[in-house]
Amino acid sequence: MKRAEKESFVTEFTKQIEKSQAFALLSFTKVDVETITAFRKSLREKNVRVKVVKNTLAKRVFGTTPYTTGLDADLKGPTMLAYADGPDVDPVSTVKAIWEWADKEDFNVSVKSGAALGGVMTLQQLKALSLLPGRKELLVSFLFGLKHHPTRFLFALKDLPQRLGYGLNALKEKKAKEQQ
């Protein structure tokens, strides 16, 4: 790459990283083409992009972002960067998509560290974030919680007159038996 190409790459990639809600630094060794293509394709379907970045260029990119400290130690060896494509992509789903592949036995890519929710995260923190429910799951459970109590209240309102009717009917049958 020539100097002008490197500068334009750094400015464009910096914009993408600043817009991203989450990213992870990955280390890779001896990965065949089919596997890495399947990896990229499955992540692309979940709005996660993957780039192999030279460590010197990555240091320049992170030098202008809030993630300056904490990531320099992990920029050694072959480095691949998986990041959320856009500001509206859920950081939890991004990390989950990466961990789905990182947990596979025959996949020679490992997570070094990363960032999510505006801060640098260690390997253990990213793993913990991947275990949380995503935005969609949280919204569904929240809406279910909102719906649950009014529904129970309405069933209670319906149940009370019904039980009163059963009680009055039982009393009527009892009186009818007594009169016979």
Q: How would a textbook summarize the main sheet?
A: 5 strands, antiparallel
What's the multimeric state? single chain
Number of helices: 6
Order of helices and strands: HEHEHEHEEHH
Based on secondary structure, the structural category is alpha+beta
Which radius of gyration do the C-alpha atoms yield? 28 Å
Shape: elongated
Tell me roughly what share of residues is in helical segments. 55-70%
Strand content: 15-25%
Give the number of DSSP strands.
5
Q: Average pLDDT value?
A: 83
Question: Which spans of ≥5 residues are poorly predicted at pLDDT below 50?
Answer: none
**Strand order in the largest sheet:** 2-3-1-4-5
Distance between the termini: 105 Å
